[in-house]
Amino acid sequence: MFDLEFFRINTGSGYWDPILWIFAFIIILVIVYVIRNLGKKDFKKSGEKSKVFLSGNPEYDKEQMHIKGSNLYWGFTESMKWLYDILNRFHTGNVSDYVLWFVVVMAALFIVMTISGGI
Questions:
Q1: pTM value?
Q2: What letters, b where the CB count within 10 A reaches 16 and e where it falls short, cover 41-52?
Q3: To 10 degrees, the CA torsion angle through 37, 42, 47, 50?
Q4: pLDDT category of residue 8 using cuts at 50, 70 and 90
């Protein structure tokens, strides 16, 4: 019939069976679906119940509530400002420049790995 041993991957300390993982994933999805359906059917998504709870603070417009990346990572960017200034000189915004950098770095890694004999 159908040989399931073909799909098993022997790692030396056990095996990984993708068919078993698919069945486990399907069973977990069924359990999640059953738990989800146990919820209240008469819940209305309007009114006070559906508002976001912000510890009693009012919810402002999205523009006022949005935390900018510059504020969120301020300490990190200030401590690494010397590196950002150096990297900012190389930043052109042109995708072909980034592809060129990627190819150059990968070629350098290939040469180093070839010379050193690999890991």
A1: 0.36
A2: eeeeeeeeeeee
A3: -10
A4: low
Residue whose pair of structure tokens reads 């994933």 in the numeric block: 25
- Please, which residues have CB within 8 angstroms of residue 70's CB and are 6 or more apart in sequence? 77
- Alpha helices per DSSP H over 1-119: 18-37, 62-65, 69-72, 74-79, 81-90, 95-116
Count CA atoms closer than 13 A to 98's CA, side-chain side: 6
Contacts 24+ apart (CB under 8 A), 38-47: none
The total of other beta-carbon atoms located within 10 Å of residue 8's CB is 15
pLDDT tens for 77-86 read: 889 999 989 9
∠ CA 103-108-109, rounded to 5°: 100
pLDDT at 3: 60
Number of residues that this document lists for the chain: 119
